[in-house]
Amino acid sequence: MGKFGENVKGYDVPVLNEREIRAAAGILFLFAFISIMIAIMQHNMVPLKYFIIGFLVDFLIRVFIDPKFAPTLIAGRLIVVRQVPEYVGAPQKKFAWVIGLVLAVIMLVLIVIVNSYSIITGLICLICLIFLFFESAFGICLGCLFYGWVYKEKARYCPGEVCEVKDRHEIQKTSGLQLLIVVAFVAYLVAAGFLLNDYFSQKPRDLREIISPSATTPPVK
Known about the structure:
Layout lengths: L14 E3 H25 L3 H20 L5 H9 L7 E3 H24 L5 H20 L3 H4 L1 H5 L24 H25 L6 H5 L10
Helix pairs in contact: 1-2, 1-3, 1-5, 2-4
């Protein structure tokens, strides 16, 4: 078994590169979303089953062998190879990945082995999507948030220094006007849904037919 994380000068605990972790999460989110949508829209569970066994193996390697040998993390490293590393504490990441591994095992049993679907599998799929999306889009490791609750110790070296208690910079502060703009934007989208739904629901036409109706009209025999 390899070591978990890398020893980097200036850091008291083993660390991992958050940039490649986020890239890997983005890769997993993409394939998870596609396979889940196929299962929902086409009632075809085959892609989801392949995703589950791939996800499981990837996380087994991360947790029990060495993260640097996990396929998606290798792919993530290749994608962000030109970016300066952003180091994050390895202990909390391992804890978060153990949570992912447990979810993968449950999905393996229920979907792949038992060949079933239920509200349980649906909720687990939703949880996985949320975890992967927050990691890839926002750099927020939801699993890491539970680390302090379980081990009763503060996580070290979190992305964006969120583990450290400090005042926000001026550029990070949100004014009441900005919050009002967000609320107004959501209201605008809701209103558009009510007012434009019938128009948006019309079946699209061939652009050639719109520009020149005669171009798509079949000749009269």
